[in-house]
Design a protein that fits this description.
Alpha-Beta Plaits, four-stranded antiparallel β-sheet, nine-stranded mixed β-sheet, alpha/beta, globular, N-utilizing Substance Protein B Homolog, Chain A
């Protein structure tokens, strides 16, 4: 296992990105350790530097040390056990000597002493393993305690205690009503199946039962599909109706597109658009698997659509590309890409996509805009640019209020917070284009 894991961690140390998705195919143990070590990357590095006292191990051994810190700190593994694991793959006596010295110092490491004298912001950054950039961005819009609760939720892997999924009635209707059959069979397999209190299509199961679902014939045949509650909420807010002309502007991989089709029983005319070819292919495969029809799939740039100027939609869903600052629980690698440049790049494209959405929406049409981000720049501040051309519409009362900008509440905008809703961090707004 370590022969595969440690080179992956070394690549991350060298600045390579998007490694987490690739590690998923290498087995659950490797994926677990790689994901969790990345999750606590800055904290583990802080400890590494403290222990090394200026004599940082060579990069070829830094991954070994980070693995050792994680095992010792989070899994309470005895030092000798860790040493035996690492020495078994060490190539030279010099490496073994460095590791033994490092582990000897790790044994006596005192966290409270290490953070003594640091500010509350610095301590939160280290303990929650979050870049200070994120904390500085969010402190003006939420209390320090609430920020702490959300960051802790997005770091605690034990919080992934439940999984959300829905029964795909499009596939079910092709073979008769099987909802009761699915519920009955899952109960026979010992899987508790709890309906969501806010979204009728969703059910919740224990996370430990996910592997059973993945092997279940109902899942393999497209009757069941995993979907985060925040993702389903966006479609619920869009409220698609039969025979409407609907555009899903950034559609891949197609989970929300398929729910739009399901909620309209395949009677809405949907255009699903995505610029990335590989993701568009995934979209096609998913919609076919789920028995979705009536969808025009376009692999094209959302900033330059091939529609005539007279072609307008009843509704547009824009779940825009963003920093992913609300998704650290499932995608911790994104933490370490958070900076001002990354935020500005995403904000620029969101603004341009909003202009596109406005141009293809008919007068009186409905726009739902969402991002899986906690930053106000990717939510409230984006929408305020269009306040003169968009009329805010009400959201479900179970969705939290959005941030106050200049101490003023904003209509038609809301947020899902990890610490409150047990979902990804999401911004969502529902707006009507002024005639």
């Amino acid at each position: 296992m370590l022969e595969t894991l440690l080179p992956l961690l070394t690549q991350f140390l060298e600045g390579k990105t998007d490694l987490l998705s690739k590690s998923d195919s290498l087995g659950p143990r490797i994926y677990y350790y790689f994901k969790e070590i990345i999750r606590y990357w800055n904290k583990l590095n802080f400890i590494l530097l403290r222990i090394s006292t200026g004599k940082t191990p060579p990069i070829s051994l830094q991954a070994n040390c980070l693995y050792a810190i994680f095992r010792f700190l989070y899994e309470k593994t005895p030092i000798e056990t860790i040493f035996n694991e690492l020495v078994a793959i060490s190539k030279t006596s010099s490496e073994k000597k460095i590791l033994r010295s490092f582990l000897g110092t790790l044994r006596t490491f005192d966290w409270e002493q290490a953070i003594k004298g640091k500010s509350d912001e610095e301590i939160l950054s280290l303990e929650a393993a979050i870049p200070t950039f994120v904390i500085q961005k969010l402190c003006p819009v939420m209390s320090f305690e609430f920020l702490k609760q959300n960051l802790q939720y997005m770091n605690d892997i034990t919080r992934e205690s439940t999984q959300s999924l829905r029964i795909n009635t499009l596939r079910a209707e092709a073979e008769g009503d099987v909802v009761s059959q699915i519920e009955s069979e899952l109960k026979q397999q010992g899987i508790e199946f709890h309906p969501d209190s806010n979204i009728p299509e969703l059910y919740h199961i224990s996370n430990e039962k996910k592997s059973i679902i993945l092997q279940n014939h109902w899942y393999r045949s497209g009757h069941l599909i995993f979907q985060d509650k925040a993702s389903a909420a966006v479609v619920s807010i869009l409220d698609p109706q039969p025979n409407e002309l609907i555009c899903d502007l950034c559609a891949a991989p197609g989970i929300k597109t398929s729910l739009i089709a399901q909620n309209t029983n395949n009677t809405a005319q949907i255009f699903a658009i995505d610029v990335q070819t590989q993701r568009t292919n995934q979209l096609k495969q998913l919609l076919h698997h789920l028995n979705v029809s009536g969808v025009g799939i376009l692999n094209t740039d959302g900033l330059n659509l091939p529609f005539r100027s007279s072609f307008h939609f009843d509704k547009v869903l824009l779940d825009a590309p963003c920093t992913g600052s609300g998704t650290f629980l499932t995608n911790p690698e994104l933490k370490w890409r958070q900076n001002q440049k990354f935020l500005q790049q995403n904000c620029y494209f969101q603004s341009k996509l909003l202009e596109t959405a406005m141009s293809i929406l008919k007068p009186g049409g409905i726009l739902v805009y969402s991002t899986c981000s906690l930053y106000p720049e990717e939510g409230e501040l984006q929408i305020l640019k269009f306040k003169d051309t968009l009329l805010p519409l009400s959201l479900p009362n179970w969705i939290s209020a959005c941030y106050q900008i200049d101490e003023s509440p904003l209509d038609g905008m809301g947020r899902l917070f990890p610490a409150i809703h047990q979902t990804q961090g999401f911004f969502v707004t529902k707006l009507q284009k002024v005639d």
